[in-house]
Amino acid sequence: MAKRIGYARVSSREQAENSHALEQQMQRLRVAGVEEIYSDVESGTKDDRKGFNLVMDLVRNKSVDEVVITRLDRLTRSLITLRKVLDEFRENGVNMKALDDSVDLSTAAGKFHLNMLGALAEMEVDRLSERVRHGWSHLRKRQVAMNPPFGYVKLDDKHCLDHEPFLCLLETQQERSRAEIAREIVETFFQEKTLRKCLRVINQKYGIHTFAHNQGQHRRGGRVARGVFRFSPAGLRGWLINPVLQGHLCYLRMQDGQRVPQTDWIIHYNTHPDQRIVSDEEARRIEAILQHNQQVRGFGSTALRYPLSGLVFCGECRGSCYSLTGQNNYHRAKRLGLEPEMNYYFQCKNWRTRSCNQKSAVRMENAEAAVIEALVNRAETISATAEVTEEQIDPPGLQALKAELAYYLNAPGSRAEAIVADLKQQIEAYRYNQQASTSLSSEQRDLLLQTFSDPLYWKTLTPEQKRELYRALVERVIVKDGQVERVDLRV
After folding, report:
1. Which residues, in sequence order, are bridge partners of residue 225?
2. pLDDT tens digits, one per residue of 265-298
3. In angstroms, rounded to a whole number, what is the distance separating the alpha carbons of residues 292 and 307?
4. What stretch(es) of the chain map to CATH 3.40.50.1390?
């Protein structure tokens, strides 16, 4: 007996407009006598659809004799895909029937009609895409505000601060608007200087509980708060650097679901200067902090608590090494109420997933001893370059100027050109002043050489001082087989 199956599909938009659209299609297919029905809620332009793939697998395996659909565009809206499907149907001896389009592959007229309808369906999709592109272009020319970020609302085609009550503080129950919370997020970021800590403080303050996810529209995983904030660390970073917060209008930050490089954004400056959440100076500070975080793999991160954190790498897979702790006398200390003897190690992060065979861990004191030995051996070079060290690591003031320069380099207009020229002059003046203020006499340099040549000097530094100096002087520490293989210095 011939086996007949049905296929039904609605797009997400169609499902939203008519929640019974899919059910109606499936009912019509049952009336047509199909034995099984496969369905999708996806765009017809996508070829990777679960139900569609199952149908095509049955066709390729010759497990079905006829596939019934309500309309041709339910199967696909791409003429190229349609032709491939038709070829596979013919090769495997499977008939296809479309109820509304009078299409039946078992007849010559049905095949001709099918090709004509497919061409018309593809043309309609292309026209729709053109209309959408033209519509967006028209809105950009009119400088219409679109997709207001958190803290804003769209009024009269402009971005305006959202002062409507939104959330209450967990402790005092005081109401806060989105605009007030947005400003509080910025101030918290300046205080904590890291994205994750900022989110932790805000979430605790407002009693926001986040939930892990890896399905639905957030396929990349991460953590969101249902119905309140959707800030992951990456999302918070994107929000902080959004030009809308600085009083500018920005287009094309996202395209086809992907983030567009910042240099390709279309920015209209000072469209709502009286509705700012972030000033120009604060925007420079944000850029400087984020840039610094990226260089040192997380400013203030708890994962970088040790002086060499972020600088130790595996000699086998070149992956970074994570810190580990262990105790020598755990049971004895617990029994007698003594302080445990702690040991600290670095181990390849990829060993945990067994993607690297370097299981051996390196004790932190051994890694640091190798670094100190390398620095002592290079003491003469370090003392000779001490007067330019501050310039090499770019102090916060210089970082802020560079971040602002990068921001305005691709900005259109004569005003942006004047700002770029002024910033370049400020950077040169800053460097000149730094060189003048850090110049050392021969006596001072000899004293530095004597200091840097003494291992005791490096050992008596505080962990914070070590962290800062190691970041400036050490490029990486390579470890393998439980030993330090080499130490690469920046000087």
Report:
1. 210
2. 888 888 898 999 999 899 998 988 888 777 555 4
3. 17
4. 4-139
Model-level pTM? 0.45
Alpha helix positions (H), 143-194: 178-192
Which contacts (CB < 8 Å, 24+ apart) does range 355-361 have? 355/317, 356/314, 356/316, 356/317, 356/319, 357/316, 358/314, 358/315, 358/316, 358/317, 358/480, 358/481, 360/481, 360/482, 361/324, 361/482
367, pLDDT greater than 80: yes
9: left (phi over 0), alpha (psi -120 to 50) or beta: beta
- How far is CA 422 from each of CA 73, 426, 460, rounded to the nearest angstrom? 58, 6, 43
CA distances from 428 to 57, 362, 391 (A): 66, 44, 11
Report pLDDT digits (tens) over 421-447.
777 777 777 665 655 555 556 676 677
Q: How confident is the model over 404-410, as a mean pLDDT?
A: 66
DSSP state string for 202-234: HHHHHT--EEE--STT-TT--EEETTS----HH
Distances (CA, A) of 237 to 39, 43, 283, 284: 38, 31, 12, 14
The CATH label, of 3.40.190.150, 3.20.20.70, 3.40.50.1390, 3.30.70.580, for the domain at 4-139 is 3.40.50.1390
State how far the alpha carbon of 313 is from the alpha carbons of 155, 293, 323, 332, 375, in Å.
52, 19, 11, 34, 18
* Mutual angle of helices 233-240 and 280-296, in 10-degree steps: 140
Q: Which amino acid is at 432?
A: Y
φ, ψ for residue 411 (rounded to 5)? -80, 140
Sequence-distant (6+) residues with CB within 8 A of 103 are: 72, 96, 97, 110, 113, 114, 117
Q: Taking residues 479-490, what's their average pLDDT?
A: 91
Ranges of beta strands (E only) in 369-458 are none
Q: φ, ψ for residue 48 (rounded to 5)? A: -90, 80
**Could you tell me how far CA 331 lies from the centroid of its own chain?**
44
| Contact between 205 and 116 (Cβ < 8 Å) | no
Q: What ranges make up the beta strands (E) of 315-401?
A: 321-327, 342-348, 362-363
Q: Of 11, 39, 309, 323, which one is the catalytic site residue?
A: 11
For the stretch 28-58, pLDDT in tens is 999 988 989 999 888 877 778 889 999 999 9
pLDDT confidence of residue 286: 92
Q: Is 11 a catalytic residue?
A: yes
